[in-house]
Amino acid sequence: GHPALEVVFFNAHLHGCLEQLRLPPELAEAEDEEIIDILRQRIRQGSTRMPIVKVILSGPGYAGKTCLVRTLTEGAFPVEDPERTNGIDICAMMVSEGRLEFVFYDFGGQPVYASTHQLFLRSRAVFLVVWDAVEGRDEETEVHGYAQDVLDANPDAGLLFVISKVDDGRPRSRLSEEQLRVRYGANF
């Protein structure tokens, strides 16, 4: 059940009880009246918890982000190369017999979109930094720049690093898991 709404708080505010009320942390700045309205609406409607996992993919253009999303959502690698992503492509996938939804935010890797992406990077999500680690590419730009964009907007974000196209036979970068772990610490 839901907590009783008639509880009287002295020198306290409901936004300090969001976890106990099973409300999202985005309501931390909300007034008590707004939180009470949300709780009353839940009771009237009868709430069903539908877990949603936001997965945000960031990385340079042509890194393989779109192919990764399509492989995950369609169960097979795309036969044809997808067109370059302009802006953001959003795609959803239901799993566990419809009890869990993954929503993928596939960001175009072109620098022109970086400021727009900042709006999305502030949310609670799983952040994937995807790159093609062919030898000779600039890792500061290809990996660390995109990872830092996420951390600048969301300092507590957890990062998952995905190296794409490892099966194409080209020489690979020497960037190791340990180097990423050392550089990103608790965010890794």
From TrEMBL:
It holds the Pfam family Roc. It comes from the Eukaryota. InterPro entries: P-loop_NTPase. This is REM2- and Rab-like small GTPase 1. It comes from Rhizochromulina marina.
